[in-house]
Amino acid sequence: MPITATALSLNVDDVTASATWATRHLGFAEEMSADGFASLAHPEAGFNLIYLRTGLSTFQPPSAAGHADGLLVVFVVDDIDAEYARLRGEGVEIATPIETESWGERYFQMRDPNGVIFQLVQWV
């Protein structure tokens, strides 16, 4: 099965708030948008980040609409401490302060305006 592109699609109440947050703080850029929809790309992420407004009649299957409990959007970075300092300085809500796990994962988590948890990781 050849895969030609990859996307992560998230249901949120306020598409504009999440898209603006990801653009400002994570370096994504809007590729296309419409009422209740935004598709963002990042030159290094390898996938598009898509936001769909919760309640869109076109969302299929309807039973999957709403927040996905336990979902983490994770990006590996080269300098976790610099990113942590930068994002705190930008006023990003930190959900979990920087920690290092015994298996070598150094990470922190942030919350976007719709409550989506993003995690940055550096392997040490």
UniProtKB/TrEMBL annotation:
<protein>
    <submittedName>
        <fullName>VOC family protein</fullName>
    </submittedName>
</protein>
<dbReference type="InterPro" id="IPR029068">
    <property type="entry name" value="Glyas_Bleomycin-R_OHBP_Dase"/>
</dbReference>
<feature type="domain" description="VOC">
    <location>
        <begin position="2"/>
        <end position="123"/>
    </location>
</feature>
<dbReference type="InterPro" id="IPR037523">
    <property type="entry name" value="VOC_core"/>
</dbReference>
<dbReference type="Pfam" id="PF00903">
    <property type="entry name" value="Glyoxalase"/>
</dbReference>
<dbReference type="InterPro" id="IPR004360">
    <property type="entry name" value="Glyas_Fos-R_dOase_dom"/>
</dbReference>
